[in-house]
Amino acid sequence: MATRNRTPLYRKYRDALRNVRVPSHSSSGGGGGAGPVIELVSTSLLHSNRSYAPLSTDDPGSSSNGAHTMGLSPAWVDISEEISANMQRVRTKMSELAKAHGKALMPSFGDGKEDQHLIEALTHEITDLLKRSEKKLQRLAASGPSEDSNVRKNVQRSLATDLQNLSMELRKKQSAYLKRLRQQKEGQDGVDLEMNLNGSRSDVEDDEFSDLSFNEHQMSKLKKSEAFTREREREIQQVVESVNELAQIMKDLSILVIDQGTIVDRIDYNIQNVTASVEEGFKQLQKLFILPAGRENTEERGDGEVCYDPHHHVFYHAGSSYSEGDILVIKSDGNSVYYGLDASSVTAIPIQS
Amino acid sequence: MVLISSARDYVGRMLQDISGMKVLVVDSQTVSIVSVVYSQSELLQKEVFLVELVDSMSKESMAHLKAVYFLRPTSENIQHLRRHLASPRFGEYHLFFSNILKTTQIQVLADSDEQEVVKQVQEFYADFVAIDPCHFTLNMPLNHIYMLPAVVDPPSSQNFCDRAVDGIAAVFLALKRRPVIRYQRTSDIAKRIAQEASKLMYEQESGLFDFRRTEISPLLLIIDRRDDPVTPLLNQWTYQAMVHELLGIEDNKVNLRSIGKISEDHQEVVLSSEQDAFFKANMYENFGDLGMNIKQMVDEFQQIAKSNQNIQTIEDMAKFVDNYPEYRRMQGNVSKHVTMVTEMSKIVEERKLMLVSQTEQELACNGGQVAAFEAVINLLNNESISDVDRLRLVMLYALRYEKESSVQLMQLFNKLSSLSAKYKPGLVQFLLKQAGVDKRTGDLFGNRDLLNIARNMARGLKGVENVYTQHQPLLFQTMESITKGRLRDLDYPFVGNHFQQGRPQEVVIFIIGGTTYEEARVVTLQNATNSGTRFILGGSVVLNSKRFLKDLEEAQRIARASSAV
Questions:
Q1: Does the ipTM surpass 0.90?
Q2: 8 Å CB contact between A99 and A174
């Protein structure tokens, strides 16, 4: 993998030519200013963003508009930076959440509530950040076939990919947590057994003194365990809800994210098609938000159409020739999660096991 | 192996040290070079948010972007760059060229860079389209030029040679090697390209090519397509070769728009051994085995699809949603391969290719002139055989029995011209003139010396596994000779006084006029035997029969026109 750097030679020629060029410039009416300006440029190579802004005075012919905006990033760059910043915060919060999950799963009775509140708050915050980022992402969309809008669309795609990965990661964490929680719940009899064993052993040691308190102790344990179960159920419910919300975000993003290994992921294809394909994606995304809430799910739908209402979340409804089994309807109330591959065959899964 | 990974590394290194938002500017050639080794999502990861062709007329100023140019050092590109540098649209300019720059070109660029926006000028030698790990092409647009004598069109001929030398030089610069060079004696253009490559590597840029010496120098062998005109004329039955023959592959993409009713996702599909595990596993399989493997893949997919419908618990559901992108990807891949194989089966049926191919293989591999003549006549009379298949059969017969049976040959020519007015039999004669036995170096039909005849007979006695894939391209023998150190100096002379000592460990074989996927397959299989010699195959284009015949016709047209003058 040989390479050859021709920059030194290039610089040598350029420097040599600069000396020739300066007088020709001053004679063309640019004034003595041209020389110093170029000097200034060559010394500020590091701050290249602004390096040639002053030069614009050199040729007022090339649209003074451009001269003012040159070197300054367009406004949408701020949005993309905000999203990146948001995602950075999500990453930090996510590691906090992982810690909180771990702690909550440890067998402790006293302040389990605190952990749960923390988890709730964190989950909420993360989901919220993701949601907001996703909303912001839409603002990046531009219309018109300009090159700038191509850039924006690509920035958007790139951010959408990151965002999707983050959402995926969060969902994996939550799924794992949910699973562990449910395992704990199922294994509770076992835990109780062990507690009883412990308790009875201590009884033997403590003798008959604490006959009454023993019962009270048991009672309070029982109560606590009931409360514990209720609490866990609530948690599970919460996680399920959040999973749903995330699924929604991911579905929205999946329109933007590039499927790897497909023609869409080819560079040559994108040179020709970047405008067309992303605009199509956007139309779909907009359709999604324009659709009136509460529209019934039983209606016939075409490929790629997405329905959304407060009770039903359609996870994926990708347009393709093999669309059987492509649609997943999710609804959850307090007791059950309903799912179905289309609206007519919804099955309920009770949350309690 | 080396080719794809070095091209990828070149692209990666261009982008990695330039922070912030970038635009990649390519030309019509480098876009292929980059596209076959790098993906759009990988570009996005490197913060390249716009890819633009160097000749695009856009005037939009985007000073917040840094421009990374990756261009071939052609004079047109230098002119484009002059224009771009005179009124810069981007914040910074990083110029990467895929080959050696002339000093004058650097001067021109420096002269146009009045505002000093260029930050670096580099030569990154990714000047070849690395379609497979051991197979590259140069995608040369005027490929037919190689068949014409240099005097017919000297500038085009020079351009052709220059591009070939550039591509070959770049491969060796990417490998960091300087080879000894051999060429096929009977080909003028092979000799010319070999000599120009040698001049570049040992004289003009000897410093650049002065790498740490390996004990045994690698070998560059330059041969002419016309030494084996049979391989590009045959119907193919292994997956990759067959797709190229029947549907056409271009830069690892297949255009399926002609098929008719087809879902939007599959109008154009990617066929890359790097990104598609199923394709990688089956690209060299024959059509029969491929069908079984596709069926197995469909079954597996249906299993997964079924288990996805059988969602019992929240975990199942969560798992389904998590795995959905993977599921969808798999679905896309399954339907891609099914679509292509279905379409190819249809063509095979329509054109009766099984029948045609059997005779083709007989002509290419076995003796038996009388039987062969009868078979060809029968097929010419068969209504369902397409014109192009008839032409190819006559060509194969003519190449095989050029000297033995001029009477029968005339009969076939007459038959052919009576059947289709479109195909002038003159094309077969032109082929013989181009690639007849007097022009060839290698023993194409294995009937020249006693050893080859004996070997052929032994193979005949052993019997063949599959009549449709019994043909071995001449390249196979050539590689065998190289690994055994038996490639004759007389037939494949060395350039200059750089000779080979011992068996080479690395060999680049460049076929002027184009490679075929059948040959690429043989090279890959040869490399898999770990004989101690690794081969890389490259050519001016990747041929299928359609392209080979088109080049032949084009050359014939020009040859006629120039002789008429």
A1: no
A2: no
